[in-house]
Each structure stands twice: as C-alpha cells, then as structure tokens.
Amino acid sequence: MPHMTGGQAVVESLKREGVEYIFGIPGIQIMTIYDAMYNQRDIRPITVRHEQTAVYMADGYARVKGKPGVALVVPGPGVQNASAALGTAYACSSPVLLIAGQVESYNLGKDKGSLHEIHDQLDVVRPVTKWCHRVMDGNKIPAAIHEAMRQMAVGRPRPAYIEIPWDTMAGKTDVEFPAPEQFPCLKSDPEGVKRAAELLISARNPLIWAGGGVISADAAKELTALAEALGSPVAMTAEGKGGIPETHPLSLGGAYYGFGAVRGATQKADVILAVGTRLTWQMRPGTAPKPPQRLIHVDADPKVFGKNFPAEIGIVADAKEGLLAIIEEIQGKKIPQNRWSYEELEECREKHRIWLWKQAPQQCEMIAQIRKVLPQEAILVSGITNIGYWCNLAYPIFQPRTYLTSSYFATLGYAFPTALGAKVAAPERPVVCVTGDGGFLYACGELSTAVQYGINLVTIVFNDQAFGSTKSDQQRNYQGRLVETDLKNPDFVALANAFGVKGIKVNPENIGQALMQALEAQTPVVIEVPIPTLVPPFQLSSAEET
Question: Cα(494)–Cα(116) distance, rounded to whole angstroms?
C-alpha cells in the first residue's frame, strides 16, 4: 500500500481514472496537488487567468471528448468564481469534476477568518452539482474521486465536486486505490419499451425530439436507425444538434424558442418520442407537445417526466440503451410505410428557410459564410450573442459533439473559454467561437492562455457596441428608452495583438474570407466583425407563422 500525501493521492487517482488535463490556478491550499504533478507526463496542467475559465475549459473539453473534464481551484473566492461555470455545466448535463482546497480541518465551521474561508462552502456548490463531498482523511481521496467519476457516468451526467482541507492535502497516509471500473448504463424497463414500441408502430405520424442526452450518450447512430425504421422525422433541440445529420431526409434540423422546420410537422404529429431532452419552456407554442398528442419520454433522469409536458409513457434509460431497446422491440413488426412523405418534410424545411431569410437576412448570410468554410467535423461554440442565437436555427450540424451551447443557463461570457477547452480536446480539428463584444470581454485575458499553450482557437467577435439582445429589448418593448446597454469597447484587433494573437477586422460580407485566413494561420486568431444591433429570435412572436 503506497504511502503518500493527499495531493499525490489526488493526482494518482485522476491518472488511474484516465484524466489527461487539469485546468486551474495554483494557490496555497492546493499546492501539494501541483507539486505532485512535477516531472510527471500523464496529466498536463493548464493554468488559466480566472477560475470561471478553469471550469468552462473543463466543460468544453468534456463535451467534445466525451469524458469528464477536471478543474482545480482554491477555496473561497476560487470556488465562488467557478460557480457560474459549474451552473452552465449543470444546465448542459456535462461531466465536470471540480476539485477545491479547503481551510484547515481544525478551522472548519468556526468562522475564524482563515485564508479563503467560506462557511459552509459545500452550500455554494450544492445547487449546481449532482454530487458534492468533503474528504477529511487522505486515505479516502481515491474512493471519493472514483465515486465522483461514477456519479458523472451513471444516469444524467452532471458536475461533481470534491473539497479537501489544506492539512489533509499536505499530510501523508497509506493509500489504497479502487480497481478500474466500467460503469454500467441505465437499462430501460422492458414493459415501458414494449408499450412505447406499440404506440410508435400504431401512430399515423410519429415525431422524434432529440436532445442533448442523445449527444452525451453517443446515441446518434441509434437515433438515426430508429428514425429510419419508423419513417419518423427528427427535430433537435439546440443541445441535440448533431443527433442526426441535418442533410438526412428525415431531419427537421434544430429548433429554438418555438421556431424551426418542426413547426410545420408539429400539428400533424400524433405520437411524439422525446429522447434525452427536458422539453423545456423554450419550445413555446409552435413546437411544444399538446393534447391530444401522446408523449413517450426517454431520459436518464426520471425527474424530467411530466415536469413541463405530461408523458403517457416514461422510460428511465440512457439514450443509447433506450433507443436500442425500442429498435429491438420493433424488429420484425409490420410498420406502416410512407407516414410522412419526402415532399411534405421538404416543404417544412423550405418554409423554415424562407422564414429565416426573411426575418434575419444579415444573420443568415454571415452564418452561411461560416458554414461554407468549415468542414463537417469542425466544432462551433455558439455564444450568447445574436449570431449565436440564430445559429441554433440556421447553422446546420452534421456530426455529434460539434455544436456547443450553454442551454437554458444562457451564460454570457461562457463561449470563448469553453471553446478553448474544446480545442484542447480536439487540437487537430477547426474550432470556432462565435461571441459578442460584451461576452468576449468577460474572459479576454484568456488570450494569454491560448498563446501560452498553443491553443489555436479562432474567435469571431460580433461587435455591435452593446449588450445587443437587451438593447433590442429596450428598442422593441420599452419604446426605445435605452438604459446602460451601449458599450465602449476597445479596438479588438489591437487587444488581440497585445496578447500576441493575430487580429483581423472585416465587414460582414468578408467573414468567410477572413475565417479561411484564420484557419490557415495555425495560431490563435480573433476576427472582429462590426454589426448593427439585431433582433434575436426569442423576441419574435412564437405565434407567427413560419
């Protein structure tokens, strides 16, 4: 049984769990972990300039790589700074492990003013984690890290958190490491699957809604196979984009705030199969299920059933396992053919395209240029900015894990640091961040991180000199009374150059050319694109016909 410090136990445990990177900022209570990484090659630490970025990068890494991302911070301000990014990972069902230091064990809960002290720190992270735990004995560190990995792998993948007191981290103890383990997926209930299969076979016009759970479960192949077997069209939430290629004849593409090609099919559908999605309020009238439509809901989290829309059948299962079970159940059964014709689905798509270009011609033109340049395997991180919102509807995705959003958390400032983590996970693939001027300035200091570690991310900053959606809100709904939504920005090209990053400024019509130049540069690049303040899709009436 090896004898080691708590910090060494952390690093060795993470190594045994297959962790390759730790994103963090060194600080006094976690220095034994950093010391344990000295002269070892298995885990690479990446130092950031803000704790929020540490978790954002771990999140971007996790969603692209399909394995947990790990962040490391000091207690107190480190944990509080990281909490917004934890909230994003929680909303996106992303497996992120945050490891934090803690004050000395003998000062816990005493409110004596110890360095970085918060009373009680676990309460800070509890609302935005699936599982959180404090380790008081060094010999229990490996078991805690293993349990965190299990929590993120079984059921719904959400963040986990471990904190370790300063003296526990530094002290030495005998340590035993759990054996490597393949965590089982949630299996579906056979009776529920049988009922679902019967309902889908008897449906006149079945419709499938695919959410982020399809992506996190690597179930794109199974989703496509079931859609083809049933002859059912597939609509995707923003987080589910990539579940089926948007070139597939059964794909209705992405939907967002009640808009999308699925609007044209929603009224006709009589049975809806929702897989790996919460069916949030963002669906709004136009795409939301409503009686007498019958809803089958497959999700790893039973708490989502009936939360927003009543489900006739709820199947608790990992998306891959649930879809496979339904496929097996319908095999050999007589399934009606041509329940949806190619012509009517193409009419839905064409009607949506016409609506898009009518409502957002400038945005659609810029998005089309980006899509034309990027190969299918490229990763786009869609930020909280006007072009990002419209990407949910207008940017086609062809492969899973190539489109990242912040889901319902809508975290301003998340896109740039999350895209850095995505690029660390896939250094050989183009990664592009779409952000606004307001959001980019949240974490622009991480340009230094990009340069230091050779993270060749391309960031497109759409600069309207404002918090654009709130300014548009004031223009449309508050009779043009503008209050504190205009911004005074730096010269983004000069800012990039100051960090040693290549900066390019172009007009909207030249985005494609600038993006090609940026990708060829093989270096971090910031492209500034001046635009006017534009209307986001969620400020349009969902009752409007597409």
Answer: 36
